[in-house]
Amino acid sequence: MRDIKKDFLWGGAIAANQAEGAHRKDGRGLSTADIQPFVPGADPTDLHFNDMDSETFERYKNGAYIYPKRQGVHFYDRYKEYIDALAEMHVKALRLSISWSRIFPNGDDEIPNEYGLAFYDRLFEYMKEKNIEPIVTIFHYEMPLNLVEQYGGWANPKLIDYFVKYGQTVLQRFHQTVKYWIIINQINLVHKEAFASLGILKDKVDHYEQAKFQAVHHQFVASAKITEFGHKLNPTIQLGVMLADTLTAPYSCEPADVELNFRRNRMQYFYSDVLIRGEYPEYALTYFEDHGIQLKITESEIDLLRNNTADFLAVSYYWSNTVKASENSMDPNSTVKNPHLKANRWGWSINASGLYLCMSKYWDRYHVPMMIAENGIGFKDVLTGDNHVHDDYRIEYHRDHIAAMKKAIREGADIFAYCSWAPFDIISAGTAEMSKRYGFIYVDYDDEGSGSGQIHYKDSFHWYKQVIDSNGEDLYPSISNSDEN
Ligand code: BG6
Which residues form a coiled coil (predicted)? Predict the structure, then answer.
């Protein structure tokens, strides 16, 4: 039986493009995230930004929309206030990402932007002062826009070199401060988030699915090269692969549902199978052949992947789904809602047991250390007249999910961190709303970027602080919310 480690990293996770703002400050170049509009009144379940064609791209790039990610929650200028609040919550770690276009504004620049690097120097130094361990994602849903326009995104093998150069630059600069590195956010979500993950415009390629898998191959190669570089640079740092958990359950015990579910899930393991086991699995090669997908993979890349596997697996978990043979195909976007589960207004189901199951399955398959890199639920919170948010729904969600994680740990899963998404309210990745709030800390901006910017501690802030103080022992602490904040 395993226990939660004494030095377990209780933390939170954010991404640069959803928090920093300051999108043109100190030499930062435009990124893909900067052109994502907030569309008032849009269907909250419609993730319109994820599957992009050239016409939409031009319209978003040149249109007069509201672009919330350009200002985020002003983390770039206000990071000390946010870090202070996290320190007050006693968090041990903050997972955050580096903005690629802050370091290489066009992606293909000769030299990095020193002002961008200096920002992260300041940030990491302040986190160190506050005893908050940084967990850094190198690529989280934003790339220099120029790499989409000039090169066609990750479908182009040149992206390997540009990304490796960027990765090496940040590793070189920060390896003494940052131990844990996630190279690519949710590398398996390319079918749901092809534009954010790969920067591909679908009408610019002949065979969209092939282009996506080729682009993913380029990400595998870049990841292996960065891992090789990082291990030589500093053997104490850890470089990980990250999945968004999308493992499904069969809708019924009908053999066709069970088999489709099995085959679907195997293609979800594909990404970590390559990066942890170090080789392309036969089931994936068969899938490619059956779907007319021909990938360019060289012998030296095969060696590189074999010799530079990931040190840990990071997993984000939010919701779960089912598959039904009569309605679904191998397309990871086609699922059937589980009728036994409730969901929030964005259609994200609530199922803590799914976290127990996926972490246990990943452990059984890989036996490498794991972190929960994201877990949380979006709600429209109500700020009371006296600046409180009574978010018992959020407490319940995290309580049930932490209990599920503890169950997996008890049965052997080696999990060393739990990062709530997101410890303070930031812009939503999918819909660019501010009002889809995840935080334990309320941040007073609205969907159009107006507001006082003041921060207020929600009930969940006091709850999480006590969970951290008890190292996860006490999930039912009595909480008081008498602070001024
Ligand atoms: C994860 C992403 O998939 O989901 C985050 O890594 C994102 O960037 C999170 O914010 C929640 O999604 P959303 O659309 O509610 O912000």
Answer: none
Verify cis geometry, omega within 30 degrees of 0, for the bond prior to 22.
no
pLDDT at 78: 98
Q: Where are the beta strands (DSSP E) in 81-217?
A: 93-97, 133-139, 180-184
In short, whether 185's Cβ falls inside 6 Å of ligand 1 is yes
Integer Cα distance of 342 and 344 in angstroms: 7
Residue 447 tokens read as 């969907």
Fold classification of 9-469 (topology level): TIM Barrel (3.20.20)
Residue nearest to ligand 1 atom 9, measured at CA:
429
Tokens of 265: 């899930």
> Where are the chain's structural domains?
9-469
Residue 423 near residue 86 (C-beta atoms within 8 A): yes
Across 128-149, average pLDDT: 98
Please give the average per-residue pLDDT across 125-136, as a whole number: 98
Residue type at 82 in one-letter notation: Y
437 CB within 6 A, ligand 1: no
Torsion of CA 485, 77, 430, 317, to 10 degrees: -60
Q: What is the pTM of this model?
A: 0.96
pLDDT digits (tens, 9 = 90+) for 264-293: 999 999 999 999 999 999 999 999 999 999
Quick check: 484 pLDDT over 60?
Answer: no
pLDDT (mean) for 105-123? 98
User: Phi, psi at residue 154, to the nearest 5°?
Assistant: -65, -10
